[in-house]
Structures are given as C-alpha cells and as structure tokens.
Amino acid sequence: MAAAGTNGADPTGGTHESVSVGRKRSHAESLLPIKPMKEHVLPITPPLKKPEEEVEEEVEEEELDDEDEERKLKRQRVRTREYFAELEKKMTICKPAPFDYDEEAIREREACNYSQKITLEMARAGKAPRAVRVYADGIYDLFHQGHARQLMQAKNLFPNVYLIVGVNSDAMTHERKGRTVMTEDERYEAVRHCRYVDEVITACPWTLDDEFLEKHKIDFVAHDDIPYTTGSATDVYAHIKARGMFVSTERTEGVSTSDVVSRIVKDYDVYVRRNLARGYSAKELNVSYINEKKYRLQNKIDDLKKKGKEMFEDIEGKRTDLIMKWEEKSREFIDAFLMLFGRDGRLTQYLTEKKDSVMMALSPPSSPKAGSQSSEDCSSPPAKTSRFDFSGRAGASLVDDDYSDDDDEEPESH
C-alpha cells in the first residue's frame, strides 16, 4: 500500500497525477479519490440595441453642444476685439496723438471703410458698424480748460468715436482773426497732448469742403451752435449743417483766449515788473530805459514794504511771546507774594506767633511820673530795699540828702 501510495495509484482505478497542490498530501488524503473540477464559463449577453428616439436625442445634444461651442468662440472673439479696442484707447492716453501724416494715422484711415455711411441716428444708438470719425477744429491759442472741455464733449458724442482735431496755421490765423500768443508748432503740440484727441491735422483749412471731408473720411463735424462768421455774413459751417453732418457742443462761458489776453493787458505793469524781477531784460520785454528804471524802483519799494511788514510781524510775534511769558512770571510772582504776605501767609503766621515779643520790641513801656509815685508811697509802706537799691524811695532820699540853707534861714523871717 505504501508503494501504491507512493506511485500515486488509486485503488478505485482513478489517477490524481494531473492535480497540483500547494502542500504535500498525507497518506490518508492520497487514498481518497480526487474529483475533476468543472470550468465555470460566464454567459456573454449580446449588446442591447438603443431605440431610434434615444439615438436622435443624442445627435441633437451633440449638435447643441457644437452650437454652444461656436457661440462661445464667437463671444470670445468679440471680447478679444473689445479688449484690444480698449487697449488701443488706453494707449492714446499714454502717448501723444499722431499727426495726419504719421504712419499710425494713415493705417487707421486706410482701414476705415468710408463707403459704409453712418447716419446720426445710427451713431447715437450705438449701431455704427465701425468707429465714428468726428472732426473738430480751432486755433487753440493759450490752450485752456474751455478747449479741453470742447474736445471732451466731441469725444463723448457717440459710443465709439475717433476724434480728429484740426489746428489752423499762423498765416491763416493772422489773416482771418489776428495775432496769436503761441506759435503754430506750440499749438499743435498742446492739442496732441490732450487725452481726448486721436489724431491732429496741421494747417487745416478755414472752410471745410467735400474734398477735405472725403480725404480724411470724416463722418461728423463738432462745434458750438453760435454762427461762426468771422466778419462775413455767412456761417462757416452752413453747408455742413445742411448735409446733416453737424453736431453741436456747448461753449464754456467765462473763459476764452481773449479773456486771458485781456487780463494780461489790464495788469501790464504788474507782469512787466514780474518778469524783470525774474531776470528778463528790458529788451526782451520791449520796455524803454526810463520805464525799466521806474519798474525796478517800484520792485525795490515793494521789497522794502514786504520786509518791513515781515519785520513788524516778527516784532508782533515776539511781543506776543514776551507778554505771554510776562503773564506766566507775574502769576508766579503774585502767588509767591500772597504766600508770604497774604492773610494766611507765612509772615502773618509768624507775626501772630511772635506778637508779644514783637510788640515789646516795637513799643517799650514809658517812664513813671512823680505824682503817681508819691501817691503810691502814701498808700502803702515802702518796700524793703537792699543797701544798694535806689528804686524804692528815690524821691525821699533826694529830699533827705538835700543840705541846702533854707531851714536855717526860716527863724530869721520871724
């Protein structure tokens, strides 16, 4: 049996050689028959077919997803364009506006589709297919807040405005209106550094014609409503108004270049003296020799007055400080005086304590009289005195010791 067990034979006729175990079988286990294991195969179910309605719904959902993605892309493109448009506007604030002959202005003008005409209603409603090109012109001498406010109004006429500003030349201005304080180059630079301006046209014409409007692709012209005649009977902007291209702005009252010049002319002497004090020569100010000396003398007098006023103010300040210090010291002095000589002061307390001794020192007792002394002697016996005490009977001793001849001569009278 041991041999049979060793060889792996089964007494029932079965074999178990093909079975591998993880441990060594015992002798009893080797006698038991091993049943073959059955293979368990999972059944494979065929895929379920989706109904046609569900398939159509999925297709529609996919199409909707595609449409949503397209819409998202379109929105992203619009936002990108708006971002770059805002960035371009901000860039104009960080640098001066270009001139009409600069490359940046030319590129902007060529990109504008002027065949798309923009009406006033479209521009105000914000439905313009492109930027609205607005034109404003002027001399802009001594550029002030009135000029800046006019350009700000022109820039804000419509939602999307490209502001073009024309500046007249010196020759045109001197011929039509008069002399200017600033040169044309100075006026050009003053305007192009205004934050509302997108482009500057130098030496612009006095009257706008169709050729000029088409060349610069101008949609609207901005100016105040007051007819601008400059000596002639017709308004310079009459034909612009007739074409419906005129947009009005408000004029700033109380400030203009003429007002500024009037202030300077009114206080001419003050400004001449001001510039002489700042180092300008009489030749630069076109002042004669006598007037120069007069203005310089007036400046010296004003300087002396100013220094005298400052000195008096300084003395006044020192006097105020001295009075304040004296008041403080006087308070301390009064407090010390009252502490010493007041009703409850130290001296009063001292005098009260030393009243008897002080009174004895100030008023000593008076010497006794003779009559009073004799009466006292008669009423009371004399006190016993010592041998050398003469205070008791001073008067009697003087009488007793009187050795005159009056007593010896009394009998002779009888």
UniProtKB/TrEMBL annotation:
<keyword id="KW-1208">Phospholipid metabolism</keyword>
<dbReference type="InterPro" id="IPR004821">
    <property type="entry name" value="Cyt_trans-like"/>
</dbReference>
<feature type="region of interest" description="Disordered">
    <location>
        <begin position="360"/>
        <end position="414"/>
    </location>
</feature>
<keyword id="KW-0808">Transferase</keyword>
<dbReference type="Pfam" id="PF01467">
    <property type="entry name" value="CTP_transf_like"/>
</dbReference>
<comment type="pathway">
    <text>Lipid metabolism.</text>
</comment>
<feature type="compositionally biased region" description="Polar residues">
    <location>
        <begin position="369"/>
        <end position="378"/>
    </location>
</feature>
<feature type="compositionally biased region" description="Acidic residues">
    <location>
        <begin position="53"/>
        <end position="69"/>
    </location>
</feature>
<dbReference type="InterPro" id="IPR041723">
    <property type="entry name" value="CCT"/>
</dbReference>
<dbReference type="InterPro" id="IPR014729">
    <property type="entry name" value="Rossmann-like_a/b/a_fold"/>
</dbReference>
<feature type="compositionally biased region" description="Acidic residues">
    <location>
        <begin position="399"/>
        <end position="414"/>
    </location>
</feature>
<keyword id="KW-0594">Phospholipid biosynthesis</keyword>
<comment type="similarity">
    <text>Belongs to the cytidylyltransferase family.</text>
</comment>
<keyword id="KW-0443">Lipid metabolism</keyword>
<protein>
    <recommendedName>
        <fullName>choline-phosphate cytidylyltransferase</fullName>
        <ecNumber>2.7.7.15</ecNumber>
    </recommendedName>
</protein>
<comment type="pathway">
    <text>Phospholipid metabolism; phosphatidylcholine biosynthesis; phosphatidylcholine from phosphocholine: step 1/2.</text>
</comment>
<dbReference type="GO" id="GO:0004105">
    <property type="term" value="F:choline-phosphate cytidylyltransferase activity"/>
</dbReference>
<feature type="region of interest" description="Disordered">
    <location>
        <begin position="1"/>
        <end position="74"/>
    </location>
</feature>
<dbReference type="GO" id="GO:0031210">
    <property type="term" value="F:phosphatidylcholine binding"/>
</dbReference>
<dbReference type="InterPro" id="IPR045049">
    <property type="entry name" value="Pcy1-like"/>
</dbReference>
<keyword id="KW-0444">Lipid biosynthesis</keyword>
<feature type="domain" description="Cytidyltransferase-like">
    <location>
        <begin position="135"/>
        <end position="262"/>
    </location>
</feature>
<keyword id="KW-0548">Nucleotidyltransferase</keyword>
